[in-house]
Amino acid sequence: MTLYQDRNMIGGTKGDVIDIGVLRTTLMEIGQWVDGDLYNGRIVSVSNSFIFQDAVFNYSADFPFLWDEIKIPLQYDSNYLLAKKIFLEIATEVTVEFVKESHSSWKHLVRKYMIEDAQTEPMVTVTANANWVEYTVRYLVNYKKRRITKDKLFEKILDAIKKSNCELKFASSTVQVINIPVSERKSS
């Protein structure tokens, strides 16, 4: 049995390649009803003709890392600068090994394909909408460690928000009802 390391999406099916035959490629499927790129238990055989008919997405060949993001909604009265600083520190701490490991692979891709040199260090951006201020934490992660990394990030972020002495407050959808007419009751 040959050991394959590639994670692909072929013809809409995503998984780790476990066998390549003359007519079919077999994948240990991930996703579908299971979140976080975890195996769902199905073994799927995909016709090799898909290579000529559809895009084949390889998650691991030259660069076994992905950029991933999490979003954190905070109330408008939160300390915006503190939030951005804390979220960036947490993302940097959690992903430091991925950034180090990815550096030479990314530089190789930039030279090989003459693509733009992208930022591999985490970044935090902020947008505001009608309900809250939303922080997006973008980070690099090994393609097989997306779920566990997201879990670590959220644990640390939740802990930091709890320890912020109400300087950081999660936002949620709220409805404000105004100008409700007062109803008069008639006595009988």
Rg result? 23 Å
Oligomer: single chain
Strand arrangement within the widest β-sheet reads: 4-3-2-1-5
Helix content: 25-40%
Category from helices, strands and their pairing: alpha+beta
Q: How many separate helices? A: 3
Our estimate of the beta-strand percent is 25-35%
Q: Quick one: biggest sheet?
A: 5 strands, antiparallel
Average pLDDT, to the nearest integer? 92
H/E series? EEEEHEEHEEH
Task: Describe the model.
- By secondary structure, the chain is of the alpha+beta class.
- Helices cover 29% and strands 30% of the residues.
- The protein is built from three helices and eight strands; from the N terminus they run ββββαββαββα.
- The strands form two sheets. Strands 4-3-2-1-5 form a five-stranded antiparallel sheet, with no helix packed on it.
- The longest helix has 34 residues, at 80-113.
- The radius of gyration is 23 Å and the shape is extended.
- The mean pLDDT is 92.
Throw out a few tags for this protein:
5-stranded antiparallel β-sheet; alpha+beta; 3-stranded antiparallel β-sheet; single chain; 3 helices; extended; 188 residues
Write the layout of secondary structure elements.
Layout: E1 7-10, E2 13-20, E3 24-30, E4 39-47, H1 50-53, E5 56-58, E6 65-74, H2 80-113, E7 123-128, E8 133-142, H3 146-162
Antiparallel strand pairs: 1-2, 1-5, 2-3, 3-4, 6-8, 7-8
Helix pairs in contact: 2-3
